[in-house]
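Let's inspect a concrete specimen:
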Amino acid sequence: MTMQETDVLIVGGGPTGVTLALELAVQGIPFRIVDKELQRSDKSRALGIQPRTLELLNRHGDVRNFISRGNLSSGTTFYLNGKKAADVDISGLAQDTAFPLILIISQVETEEFLDECLAKHGFGVERGLEAQSIVQDAEGATAKLTRPDGTEEVIRAKYVVGADGAHSCVRRSATGLVFEGSAYPQDFILCDTSIRNANIPWNRFSLCMGRGSLAVFPLKDGTCRVVASRMGPKQTEDPKLEDFQTMLNQLHPDAGELYNPTWITQFHLHHRGVNGYRDGRLFVAGDAAHIHSPAGAQGMNTGIQDAINLGWKLAKVIRGQRPDSFLDSYDRERRPIGQHLLESSDKMFTWGCSSNPFFVTFRNLLFKWVLPWFVSSRSRRVNIYKFISEFGISYKDSSVVATAPGYSGKVRGGDRVPDHLIRSSGKEKRFLELITPETYHLVLFAGAGSSAATKGDLLKAQSQFEDRNLDRAKVHTIVSDTGDDDAASGYTDVGNHLHEEFGISKPSYAYIRPDGYVEHIGYLKDFKELLKWIQ
């Protein structure tokens, strides 16, 4: 039995694993990605793709084409005991993105899109290979894989990443990782089905509460998903379409008539989180690191963003551009996100799906009065949107990001990079189209008004940077919109909206990581702070 070698072995070929493969592919890092299943599931599974995830996936493929395969949702309508209680409209809450709405789409389509992106690099998931054991040492890890016919293969890798779900072999192989949590007591039933005579907005989720809880997610072509909690004693019989229709009639009587189901199942939910995302040469991501209720449609998105955070860091260390300790920042940046997600989704789930009859009565009475008031405030809707969309994720407390002393702009080190239109030679594009995933990016902002930097100021900073450009970063200049369109001056900030979103009036710089977050930011007069940082 021969031993194959690679830099990174990815165990698990779902959305998290394939996203990590994409990040490594654009960095030119050798890897293999394996999955024990011989073919992908044809079940819809995870449905919601959040706006931040759409932005990040757009770094790898045409997300607008992907969006055309699904259904965009502009909010949620709440029902209490069959009557409309409140409507949360998220349209117009975000101006700094090309993708402000939530995409409702089958995981089948999501995986197909990711596979298409990976195939452009000449890679694909190796199917029918199941990890049986993984043993690590100081230099790497050795994985023993088996095929359905019993043959074995051994892979030696510098690092192994477990994107292999809740029962992760990689996590079990890591002596220092513990997956803590428990199961929720409720039973749930799920059905993907066609629906007719529906009197519901097709661009809204419907969340219905009463005696029990139910959610309706409109899909394309007159189909939808219905998820419901089963009240009362444990039931062992398989759910039928009539069970969903009965609950729909009680909690959402305008929803219509269900027919021609394509998938009916029952399931239980768990909430668990791992105590660390790294153990030496082994890493976990996605469901291998955190599982929770589907409240807020965060799970798959969080796994995808785990992979995006880890991929470029592995590349830097493997190429010798960062020490191995740099990889600890993956745990420090992503585990707090996973922990917050577990806590927040658990609270949402408890409020929405509790089976305690006294609590349900109290909740329904409270929601009748409080919910309309709560969602009537734009600022409160914005706060909800920042969490759900994942635009609010920041790594500002990380040790590998910084803000120059004295800088007072809105965007700080560790924050997401906002997006707006820029222009060059009369042609407009999105700013985030410049922030490609294979490298760092230095953006020089000229500022506005009388204090704006001259072309000479920008060229001087660029020259100083190029002498120390250890990351081989791309350099971009953004000048304020004065009505002129001078391509030689870089890109024009259309309407100066990008300057406004960054909170920039004075000449400034932003050093942006391959994952679209700011690593270092400051005023141009303090450019030496960045030069010291990258050294």
Observations:
- Residues 211 and 360 are 7 Å apart (CA to CA).
- The longest helix spans residues 328-353.
